[in-house]
Amino acid sequence: MARILNVGIAQLGPISRNESRQDVVVRLVALMEDAARMGCDLVVYPEAALTAFFPHWWIDDEDELDSWFERAMPNPAVQPLFDAARRLKVGFHLGYAELAFEDGRKRRFNTAILVGKDGEIIGKYRKIHLPGYTDRRPGDPFQNLEKRYFEVGNLGFPVWHAFGGRVGMMICNDRRWPESYRVMGLQGAELILLGYNTPVHNPAMPETDDLGNFHNQLVMQSGAYQNGTWVVGVARAGVEEGVDQIGQSCVIAPSGEVVVQCTTLGDELQVARCDLDLCNSYKTSIFNFAKHRRPEHYGLIVERTGAGDVLGR
Ligand code: CDT
């Protein structure tokens, strides 16, 4: 029997700096209710979906910085989303800023969770590829301070048995790196979920400003095809606190084709019927990793000895 999963892409428009989490959760629940009406099994929300994207501005004060983070998941502000999942029997993927107390210290991560139709958390991922910088760039129209506000994720790129398939997560900038997909592809991922906040303007590379949407789809389409997996990418779009962000949230089939795409820069739900078995022919023929991949011939350093590096040939 075919393994069909109806996946909703719940794109968000801008969130203002003073919008409460409770108000944002009302927006998220409205999108989930739409998704339930359209028969979705799973809804995917963007990166850091509970607040405005605060890495775009400088924050000096520690308490103020902490106020953008979630200390527990769920927590009272987000509980209505978990309750809605249970009531509507719709799972979800949600990005948020996480404040954790681990190894005897306070730690901050850019995190995403996968939640089942019963409202229980199935898995957690912490963003590994953090863009931007730690210093202040007063000449730039906005900041990109992820390297200052977050630690590099320490949970790897796991793949979970969930929703009748093998599901992995990444977050925003991770999608530009082929190894993010490949590490999950090597674990048999059939569905990779991700959210993004991508400014149209990149102050460090203004020559690419016209290419933002192209690069967005280029990396996700390649990742899907080269690993024989569905990829679902969901934006927070539009002009938020003066920063213009791309939309074009989409669902990509293992063929690399975009099957569904958002057309606005606001809150918008689109639905894709994802047949997880479409991954099979890619995984068993052209991208049968065990049969065709030859990492031992890539010339990677496999051993460092006193006499020199041993290459994997
Ligand atoms: N949030 C995030 O990771 N954004 C980065 C901006 C990089 S500048 C083009 C991204 O890769 O979309």
From TrEMBL:
Asked if the Swiss-Prot or TrEMBL record annotates the protein with the keyword Ribosomal protein, the reply is no
**Which GO molecular function, any one, fits this protein according to its record?**
hydrolase activity, acting on carbon-nitrogen (but not peptide) bonds, in linear amides
- Name all CN hydrolase domain ranges: 5-278
Task: Give the protein name, as stated in the record.
Answer: N-carbamoyl-D-amino-acid hydrolase
Write down the SUPFAM superfamilies for this protein, in alphabetical order: Carbon-nitrogen hydrolase
Q: What keywords were assigned to this record?
A: Hydrolase
What PANTHER family does the annotation carry? NITRILASE C965.09-RELATED (PTHR43674)
Q: What is the originating organism of this protein?
A: Limobrevibacterium gyesilva
